[in-house]
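Morning. Coffee machine broken again, so started the prediction first thing and wrote up yesterday's gels while waiting. Chain of 261 residues, entered below exactly as on the submission form.
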Amino acid sequence: MPDDVVQYEVVQYEVAERVATVTINRPQARNAITEEVREGLWSSFLRAEDDPDVDVAILTGTDPAFCAGMDLHELANRPRRPFNDHTDPTVRRFVPHVTKPVIAAVNGACVTGGLELALQCSFIIASDRARFADTHARVGVMPWGGMTVFLPQVVGIRMAREMSLTGNYIDAVEAYRIGLANHVVPHEELMPFTRRIAADIVSVDQAGARQLLATYDATSSTTVAEGLRHEALAAMRWQPDGAEIEARRDAILSRGRSQTS
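Came back before lunch.
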């Protein structure tokens, strides 16, 4: 039994054997990100960060999806952000920066903001049902969660450009081939396998593990920070029309289903 279980309406949190599992729980909306989801994710990961009984966190979604990205209905009806050149381009993270490893266990569709969410984790383990895509260009919005910084770091600039410009889906095997996923496992083995990897991390010296993560961040922080600032400024200048986003929603969902079926 888990050592500690907390259930939010849209985000579930549990701790067992020094591993916190955070689950987005909006299966009827393919775990799309709302402000409520984002608040639940922040609360959960800050709790894991502060808990001395947690060494590793796992992020996943309630089947059948990992995360379909931002909730387009909420996004289309959200008031436009005021912007000028002096606006602070704070990086929009879906999970806070923490010192502990976070493993994304991608169980299904991982799309746009959902892909950014997975990229903000330490690494990705994919179910054979996982599908990945960046559909920002198809929605007509600019990324603000690190897509143009983190995706090329993982798959290379040319593959990242192709994924973002086409909005095409790739399957788990292709994600593994291009370095987006560390492992691909049968769907029913996703969480047991991920927990075994988490247990391996728990077994190492924790001060050393966190220093390693901090060192990885430090070795790339200069270019990452500048890239994230540039992306955030571009996103704030790009003010899409909410009605256009809403109108594109059904076409994007239909296209996604045709590419992932």
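The mean pLDDT is 88. Going to sketch it on the whiteboard this afternoon.
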